[in-house]
Structure formats: C-alpha cells, structure tokens
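Explain this record to help learners:
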Amino acid sequence: MQSPRIMLPWEDMPRRWYNVKADVPDLATPVLHPGTLQPVKPDDLIPLFPMEVIGQEVSQERWIDIPSEVQEVLSLWRPTPLHRARALEKALGTPARIYYKNESQSPPGSHKPNTAVAQAYYNKHEGVKRIATETGAGQWGSALSFACAQFGIECMVYMVRVSFDQKPYRKSMMQTWGGNVTASPSELTEAGRKALAADPDCPGSLGLAISEAVEDALTREDTKYSLGSVLNHVILHQTVVGQETKKQLAMAGERPDVLIGCVGGGSNFGGLVTPFIPDKLERPELRIIAVEPESCPTITRGRYTFDYGDTAKMAPVVKMHTLGHTFMPPRIHAGGLRYHGMAPLISALVEKNLIEATARHQIACFDAAVQFARTEGILVAPETSHAVRVAIDEALRCKQTGEPKVIVFNLSGHGHVDMAAYDAYFSGKLVDYTYPEESIREAMRSLPPVAP
C-alpha cells in the first residue's frame, strides 16, 4: 500500500526564506506615512517593528537566512506533510490528482506560527518585553501567544469581538500560552472607546483591532506591534510552506497545474504560491487561484489603490486591493478572512496577471469542508474551507474534461476550536451574503487623498 503522505526529512527543512520581489520587477509599491502621506522612512517604523523586520520588509534579496533559533522552534513540527487526497479523488470520480499541504500540524493548528516565531525572535533579540497584536478568527493570536511563550515575551491580543464571542476556545488557547486577550473594540484604547461610543454593540473588525494594537504599541516604550498577514515580511516567513511543497511534489514526480489557497490578508496563500512564481513565469498555463469570501470580496470587487491599513488611520498607507478601511464584516459571516485589504505583494501579482482570484459563498464552502472531512478525515478551519471548495470545483471540471491535472491547495489550519461555525452550518443558521456594492462605493469616499 502506498502512503498518501509525502514526508521530507528534517534535514530538508528550508534554511532560507524566499523573496519573490527579486524575481518579479516592480512588485514593491510605496508605503506611506498615515499622517503625512509621504513615503515612510525606516525611522518611522521603529516604534512598531524591530529593525531586522523593517529590513526584511523592504529587502530585494532573493534569499534571507532563517536564524538557527527560529529553525529550532520550527522543527517542532516542520517539515509538514504533503498529502495525496486519494479518498476525495475517488468520491469525486475525478482523473485529477489532488494534493494538500497540511499546515494544521503546528502546535496552534495553523500556518501562522511560521511568521509568529520569527517575529517573536527578532523582538526578543532587540530586547522587546511586550508585543501587541490583533486577531480575527483567533489563529494569529494563538500563534503569537505560542511564539512569545517560546522566547519569554508578554503578548497582548485584541480579538475582533464577533470572534471573541463565537470562539471562546481560541481565547483559552491564547491564555494557555500566556497571552492576554481582550475583545475589540475595547475600553483600553482611544480607538476602541471611540468605536464603542459610536456603536456600543459594535461587532469589531480586523481594521479596528489593528488600530487598537498599533495604538497600544505606540503609547508604550516596552512594546512593539506584530502583524500576522498582509506585510511583505510575513509572506516572506511563510515561504517555508511553498519551498517544502516544491520538494515534495518533485519526490512524487509531479508538477502542479493548479495552486489554490484561501485569502484574507494573503499570508498562507502567499507562502504557498510565491515560491512557484518563477515556475509561472516559465509556464504561463500554471494557474494560481486565490479564494475569498463573497462577504469580503477584497480582490474580486475591491479597488486597487492606496488605503489605510486600519480603521483609525494609524497604520501605514499601502497600495492594495481594498474594500475601504471603514469596512465592517457582517455578523452572519462565519468563515473568517475578514480583512478589508489584501497584501500589497499579492495585489501586485494579481495586477500582473500572475494570480487569479475568485469568491465563494460560505454555505458552499462548508459543504466542501464536510465532504473533505468525510473522505480525508480532517476537519478544516472555516477559512481553509474556501480552498477546499475551489479544489473540488477544479477536480469536478477535470471530471468533465477528462484532464488528469495536478491540483494543490494549502490546508492552512484545522477547525477543532471553530466548531461554533460548523454548529451554525448543521443547524441551518448560516446564510449566504453578498457584500453590497453601495457599501463599497461609500467606503471609497474615505480613501486617503493619494493618486491610485
């Protein structure tokens, strides 16, 4: 019997991060100061990030060494397996070969520690005592709490209120690793108090939670800010995923025809696909698909322009696909992926037609997640269900055409502490929601006065 898992030996764990900016011209876009709307200088970012992280954010180098201390922590679960989804293929009756990179095997159960560990290390190296951050569904807050515990740093997490209420066990995970968690908007910051004054029942958003975390970091000398997605250095740290996947596919004698990942801010998707961008440049027929929710259609319906990274306009201004920094996701959306903008790198790759994007409704995504669980056995995070949905759709298309394509997606996390969303699905409480076009048009009126 052939094992469905393709395992890399520990010695083949990546020792360097890959920077796609070295291979694709003009990917870097200006980052602007939120107050002056002028290009930021490294000194402007020092209150938020350690210098090594700032350097990685602007680097054009193709390869950046992973510190041995970071490798040591990553080796607790890396390399992660690449699975052949034989049972799913059989159930679908498809000639396609489906593979998934299983990032659910980290201690917090997602891909997020790949960057959390690196960021915690660089902060520790510069003597930082405390890190403030935000989290939406809770994967990032869990990952950073875990990483901070590895390096003895205090972690403060502002968790989007709707997720704070829906996912109590995510909060428990963070607390187990020593993280301090509060619902956002909170009374702890001016940004939070202002939001609560306007709407005492405000469900929160990632943009608002970012505002609170940034304010926290800017008002304390012992604290830096950490972000789990969107920025260049985050995607850089996630490229261990794609590098391992390339080696594992080669071991299986395969090369991908379709690469798929869910997108909220862009980190797990970017980590999987950017190491394959040189392949895309050589093989234009390689399809790279980003999947987002219809209720937060950042790429498929947002505008590619400069926007603030947070609701309170405290974070840097970047050029990205955006629904507007005032975006507030609907309470009825259970699938995560709630950020108003997309990573500038991913946005630029979309504009260069190296990446395509699609959106799916949440009920169809949960349908796919349940089918995947009943065949492959893994209960995926609601975010990952979007990638599963499109992987199944592509496999069914191969069934119609008879093409034996190789389909690869990133299983970015498990859903073991996200069962409230599954419960809502099984009880018929989930509804599909299309984000209104008029809300997008209204949000565009609040964009910073910068030429797109």
Observations:
- The CA atoms of residues 261 and 271 lie 10 Å apart.
- Residues 232-251 form the longest helix (20 residues).
- The chain has two domains: 19-66+112-225, 78-109+239-444.
